[in-house]
Amino acid sequence: MKRFCIVQFLIFSLITIGNSQSEFIDYRTVFPESFSNATYYLTQNKWMVDTLKKRGVDPFISLSVVFPELIRFNQMQDNIEVTALNTLYIQYGSSYSNFSIGRFQMKPSFAEDIEAEWNCLTPKPECFKSVIFDSTQTRNNRRMRIQRLDNQVGQLFYLSLFYFIVERKFSINLKTDLEKVHFYATAYNYGFRRDFEKIKAHILMKEFHTDIFKTKFTTCYSYADISSFFYQYFKKTETIKTP
């Protein structure tokens, strides 16, 4: 009986190890062209790393958070969406038109949530101490928001605010930087205004894909898993390092 139990334990251990190994995904092979384009974009825009560091934002965590969006980004589709839908948003708000903009695929509703949370954040980081938003729902405010979202400097600005907000709200519950990447990426994709347990429970959900329309043939992946892959395998490379 004792020998039988030992054999069972060994079999279970081998199965467990096999399963854990089979779950590893090399996203460089899953998205070869778009992954390469995304990393190339970062190497060509190392100013972002410098800017984030000067603001006190961890560039490896924050850029890992948005890396899946760099994979998903499609310039032609983005231009069509912005041209067709930004007028609707300016006129009527996010309930009528809420669409992804730019490399980081930020929606107007995301920017609205960032602004609302930021106005309540105290004390504010020194680098953005004077930043306060007018949250009144006017056409002019919505127009200015679209203008901020429609360029990389503005998107990096919102990413910086997002980082400070989630650091303040959630970092006390996270022990390592890798845990932060998993959690912050999920918060970015799923909704950072949700409570800690709901975001944590969503980390392993496989909903990320690059198809134009999701069908029964679409393969989905964990957004947070892609972010952590980038963080682990590229943190110490030249991908987003500065001299």
The total of helices stands at 12
The averaged pLDDT comes out at: 85
Number of strands: 2
Strand content: under 5%
Shape: globular
Spatial extent as radius of gyration: 20 Å
Fraction in helix: 55-70%
List low-confidence stretches: 1-22
Q: How is the biggest beta sheet arranged?
A: 2 strands, antiparallel
Q: Give the end-to-end Cα distance, rounded to a whole number of Å.
A: 63 Å
Strand order in space, largest sheet: 1-2
Can you give keywords for this protein?
mainly alpha, two-stranded antiparallel ribbon, disordered N terminus, 2% strand, 64% helix, 243 residues
Would you give an account of this structure?
The protein is an all-alpha fold and 243 residues long. The protein is 64% helix and 2% strand. It contains twelve helices and two strands, in the order αααααααααααββα. It has a two-stranded antiparallel ribbon. Helix 10 (177-190) runs antiparallel to helix 12 (223-234). The radius of gyration is 20 Å and the shape is globular.
